[in-house]
Amino acid sequence: MYRYNEFDDAFLAARNAQFRAQVQRRIDGSLTEDEFKPLRLMNGLYLQLHAYMLRVAIPYGTLSSDQMRQLALIADKFDKGYGHFTTRQNIQYNWPKLPEVPDILDALAEVKLHAIQTSGNTIRNVTADHFAGAAADEIADPRPVAELIRQWSTDHPEFQFLPRKFKIAITGSPNDRAVTRAHDIGLRMVERDGEAGFEVIVGGGLGRTPVVGKVIRDFLPRADLLPYLEAVVSAYNTLGRRDNKYKARIKITVNENGIDAVRDQVEARFNELRPLFKGVDQELLAQIEAHFAAPEFAPRDEAPYALAYANDPVFRSWADTNLAAHKAPGHAIVSISLKAQGQTPGDATSDQMRLLADLADRYGHGELRISHEQNVILPHVHKSDLPALHAALKPAGLATANIGLISDIIACPGMDYCALATARSIPVAQQIAERFDALKLEHDIGPLKIKISGCINACGHHHVGHIGILGLDRAGVENYQITLGGDGTEDAVIGQRTGPGFAYDEIVDAIERIIRAYLELREDPGETFLAAYRRLGAEPFKAALYPEAAKKNAA
Amino acid sequence: MARPFTPKVITANALLNGDVVYFTANDDWSPMLCDAEVIEDEAHAQLRLLEAERQQAQAVGVYMADVINGPDGPEPAHFRENFRRSGPSNYFHGKQAELS
């Protein structure tokens, strides 16, 4: 894990002292809200429906056990004993009080965490594959590069007033778990002639205008990354629109100018910038890489795992859904679900956070990850420790065997918290999860991603859900539109709208009709929902969703 | 033709704790919707909004919200305001807990 140097510590301390003084000046009346708002947003402090909200970055989704314990302490001391993990690898506290926020930021700084650039028209928290450094399919750990980008982008003077926010995601694997094609810049590690480099994707994004990103460079040597990124952001800073907030993201810049014109401008700027990077960035990267050295994966007897797997059906079910292939023999990547049926997706209590930290110390080299799918990952666990880990998770409500299944739902905070929301998301997710749990259909249905957003801004990634749900306000009533066939992987696809939306009390039934149609129509239990949808198209699912219209058409 | 003016209250969040607050006829802020001044006249509404916005040390994000007059005082016209006056639906937090 990255360890701060003296410069990092001093920078963060100075920034926190500045913000403390700014909060003080707001409270004593020296600053108006108009003056203060951009300052608080630069430090991750929003004003939501019921209270302030502090968004804390978890850079590239990596946490140490000590950091997790400190997040728990903050939840207890300054909030209501819980935190909400988001789709961009942040944690949000929903109830901080303005005078206490400087103390929260100081508490975060004690464990090298911060809320800088988690809001505003800047380069946001760089997200990464949550299996980074552990996945069997990985070319290289993308986190050193993500850390380099974080250092480069933090307080970068040229990029503090971009036309709009700017999000970068990075993966070191050909299998994209970081939704790189739905980011302003997506970086996907690829190999050419035995050399690792990046496929650079630009102009992806969800929101009101969903766009799958386009490849602007199919192979960028690793050493050219920072000057190339700087060239892309610089071109966007020049070409991006500032006259209309809704046309300001780089996806619109790319669509309006064309990818070729944008590429030309980027390459021209890159040619200017490249000679100015004299290798300092590569020296820095080499230092950072040393911080991310993998732990020692010692071979041990795997018999305890095999024994539990053979004899304990509950453990077996959990192992089948929640484990992923690790690069080291005898090890597994463990996804711990924060989606117990009926609970709020992505929420963890302070007790759960402390337990996760302790289990990471005991079984996982003290390391944790937060996924964009709002779960917690222990990336390095030896298989012989899995039965004990599972037993420890169970009483804390953390052993739900549903990763990648219908109740593993992404949901934004929606109108229960968010000032921008047009409808609720959380209760819809809770009810869908409870419905299919009661029907005992979850494991039969198999891999299925439902994603729910409470407004058109699409924080819940509904466009790339196999089933997407978008909550809207239709004439003062909550209404939910359904999209089908979305996919957030390396083959990213934007889901297609089925037709008219459903009322709050109709949406769970509507989802059940889609699922029953799928179970009826699939060739065999091995054909996933997405595969069936791709084979059959939308029509049979629309017929199930709108039986009245289907009857009329048949008549 | 201009749309007829519908009853409104002035609402905001409290500067220090972010709590939802309502502007009262006494020029102060209450956490309870039933304490809010219900404004029935457009010209008066504009004046009161200016007066509320001037209270920078108390309130943030001041705006007018539609209400319906009921037997127990104003009721929110829109579901968003209904959530604001009670709290989130996933936990018993916020006003529903603090005012009960």
From TrEMBL, chain A:
UniProt GO molecular function: 4 iron, 4 sulfur cluster binding; heme binding; metal ion binding; oxidoreductase activity
InterPro entries with a match to the protein in the record: NIR_SIR_4Fe-4S, NiRdtase/SiRdtase_haem-b_fer, Nit/Sulf_reduc_fer-like_dom_sf, NO2/SO3_Rdtase_4Fe4S_dom, NO2/SO3_Rdtase_4Fe4S_sf
Boundaries of every Nitrite/Sulfite reductase ferredoxin-like domain copy: 52-111, 345-395
Superkingdom in the source lineage: Bacteria
Keyword match Iron: yes
Keywords: 4Fe-4S, Heme, Iron, Iron-sulfur, Metal-binding, Oxidoreductase
Alphabetized Pfam families for the sequence: NIR_SIR (PF01077), NIR_SIR_ferr (PF03460)
All copies of domain Nitrite/sulphite reductase 4Fe-4S, residue ranges: 119-271, 408-545
Transmembrane keyword on record: no
The name this protein goes by in its record: Nitrite/sulfite reductase
Native organism taxonomy: Bacteria, Pseudomonadati, Pseudomonadota, Alphaproteobacteria, Rhodobacterales
TrEMBL record, chain B:
Composition bias, Basic and acidic residues: 75-84
UniProt xrefs under InterPro entries: DUF2849 (IPR021270)
Region Disordered, annotated ranges: 72-100
Pfam families per the UniProt record, alphabetical: DUF2849 (PF11011)
Domain of life: Bacteria
Protein name: DUF2849 domain-containing protein
Species of provenance: Thalassovita mangrovi
